[in-house]
Amino acid sequence: MYDLSNNDPLKEKLTILSDAAKYDVACTSSGVSRGGKEGFLGNSVAAGVCHAFTADGRCISLLKILMTNHCVFDCKYCKNRASNDVPRALFTPEEICTLTIEFYKRNYIEGLFLSSGVIKSPDYTMERICETLRLLRTKYRFNGYIHVKAIPGASDELIYSAGLLADRISINMELPTQQSLRKLAPNKTMKAIIDPMNRISGTIAGHRVAIGKSARMERCGINKHLVNSIFGPEADRIGGPVGESLLYPADKPFLYPAEKTDALLRRPFAPAGQSTQMIIGATDETDLDLIRTTQALYQSFDLKRVFYSAYIPVNTDVSLPDKDTPVPLLREHRLYQADWLIRYYGFVADEILSKDNPFLDYRVDPKCFWAINHLDRFPVEINTAPVEVLLRVPGIGPTSVKRILSARRYGNINFEMLKRMHVVLKRARFFITCNGKMLDRTPIDDRFIMNQLAGLEQKDVYKIEGHNDGFRQLNLFDDFKLEGA
Questions:
Q1: Quick one: three-class SS letters along 119-145?
Q2: Which residues pair with 149 in a beta bridge?
C-alpha cells in the first residue's frame, strides 16, 4: 500500500485540504443503493455510509476534501477567500484517486465528498473535478459513493458529466437572499446559483421518468408566489414540465469518452439527488426567511436535502459577526427540526413561524412550539383522529402513526399500548386522550406545558450549546497512524 509518512507532500496537502473542507456540512450519502460488481471496488448502501459523526453532527466517514483551497473569489465569510493569507494546496486528479483508494482499502472511509475552491475559472475547476471522477470510475474501477460539489458558472456539459459520474451533485446556495450575496459574496449572484440548480433538477427528473419512476423525489406542491418572492424574476422557469430545463437535451446525449468505451459505466444522472447548503448566522436573516427559502427550494428543485451550516467566525470584517461570537449550533439544530417538519409532517413555513414571531423558540423543538401555540386544537382522541392530525402531535412520528392506524382496526388503544408503540408519552401526554381520558390531570395551559417540555430538553440543549467553545472537526490523523502496509 501507499506510504503516507510524515514527510510525504501528499500528507501535507491532505492536512491542509481536509481541514479546509470542514466548513461544508452537506455530505450525507443517503439515497442510492448499489451492490458490488465483479471487477469493481466498493459499493454504496442506500442507508448511507456516514457511520460516524463529530459531536456537532458533521460526518467523518467520507473522505471529505477540497481539490484546492486556492480561490479567485473573495467571499467575506470564507476562510479560503482570495485575500486571506492561509496555506494553500492543490491536489491533482491522480492524487485524489490515490487517497480515495488507499483510505478505502484501509476501511477508513466508504466514499468521497469532493468540493473545491475556484482556481482560474469555474470551467477549469470543473474540468479537473470531472477528470478526477472519470479516473476513479474507469481507471480505478471505484464503485463506491461519490458526492461532488458543482461550481456555479461552469458549463452545462461539465456539470452533466459530473452528474453522470457522481451519486449526488450539489451547488451551495450559501446565503438565502440576493442582498446577502451582494454583501458577503460579491462574485456570486442568485441567478448563477439558481439556473444550474434548476437544470440539474430537470435532468434528474428526466432520467427518473426514463426508467419508469416518478419525476419527483419529494412530494411537495409548487407555491409559485413564494418561489418568485424569494428567487425573483429569474425563477419564472421553475416548476415547468419534466425535461423542460435539462442540462443537455435528451436527443443530444453527452457522454465522456470513457463511457463510450465501457458500457458497464453507463449510469443514471445523480441517482442520490441534489442538495445545497446555507450558512446560518453570518447575516441577519430571520429563521422565517431561512425556512421559507428552504421550502421554496424543496418545492422548486425537488432537492434531497437542504443543509444548514452554523457560521464559524474565521475572518474579521465589518460585515461579519465578531470573531468571539458563539457558533449558533442550537439554532442550526432547531432549523434542521423545522426542515424535517416541512419535508415529512405536512407543515409549511408560515405555520411554523410568522412575521410577528420570526424566530424559533430554542427552548423546545418546533413541533412542540407549534402545538403549544395551537392548544385550541388539542387534546385529540387517539382512537379517532385522522392521520394529518396525529402527525402534528408532539411525540408521534410517521412510524408511530402507522402502528396506531393498524392497531385501531382491531379495537381501542390505551396509553400502555401507545408506550409499546414507542410513542414518546412524556411529550404526547399533553396533547392526546385515549377513550376520552388524558394520561394524568394535566392542566391545558401554555405556560405550564412549555415549562414541562423545556425541562425535558434542557440536557440536550446544554450539550449542543456546550460545543460552541470546542468546535473542531475530527482530524484524519488523530486516532490512527498511516503507515505503509
A1: CCCHHHHHHHHHHHHHHHHCCCCECCE
A2: 170
69: nearest Cα among 12, 26, 144, 131 = 12
Q: Which amino acid, one-letter code, is at 404? A: I
Q: How far apart are CA 110 and CA 52, in angstroms?
A: 11
Cα 403 to chain centroid, rounded = 29
- CA-based R_g, the chain, Å: 24
d(CA 190, CA 482): 42
pLDDT, one tens digit per residue, over 210-269 is 888 888 875 443 344 444 554 454 444 333 333 334 444 444 443 333 344 344 345 689
- The pTM of this model reads 0.80
- Give backbone dihedrals phi and psi of 138, rounded to 5 degrees, phi first: -105, -65
DSSP state for residue 233 in the 8-state scheme: G
β-sheet bridge partners, residue 44: 34
Angle at 412 between CA 410 and CA 417, to 5 degrees: 95
- CA–CA separation, 162 vs 65, rounded Å? 17
Residue type, 238: I
Cell (9 digits) for 207: 432520467
Q: Which residues lie across from 275 on neighbouring strands?
A: 170, 305
Cα separation, 213 vs 207, whole angstroms: 9
Chain center to CA of 106: 27
Distance CA 18, CA 14 (A): 6
pLDDT by residue (tens digit) across 402-426?
999 999 999 999 999 999 999 999 9
What are the structural domains of the chain?
9-327 (3.20.20), 366-468 (no CATH)
The DSSP 8-state label assigned to residue 432 in this structure reads E
Rounded to 10 degrees, the C-alpha dihedral 112/116/122/125 comes to: -70
